[in-house]
Amino acid sequence: MSTPASSSFRVTSAPDVVYGVWGDKRFETASADWVQVPGAEVELKFGEGHPSLGARFVATFSAEALCEDNNRDGQGVLHATVFFGDEQGAPVSENHRFATARGNPEWSSHTLIRTARFEPRPGSRDVSARVKLKVSGAGGGVQNWFLKVERFSL
User: Is the pTM here over 0.90, yes or no?
Assistant: First the structure.
């Protein structure tokens, strides 16, 4: 389990590791439940036979996004976030929109940043970063995306 996010942190050195993965294929969804963007994942594991020293991760996701309103009332929303294992990264509110269906739907570039902190503890755990989407009253998707994850050891 990650530590509850505080509203700030200070980094005094470069990341230990920077991971990057990208894809150009269009992925669209009409699901109101979180669905993973195929390939938008960075494998992150702690432990593997020795105690975890803990880390803070900072994920940046950029993509061209499209959101089309199913109800034609302009209220359709495409949500996107980064999960670390089974937990959403921070900050996240109940209204974290990635793209909306206002106006004429058109592909446009969007970026989000999420962070998570995992304290040292014995045992192994999978905290892989995965980009997930869901929609509210809409259909939507991403293409030409890039996921970058920076790891800072504690």
Answer: no
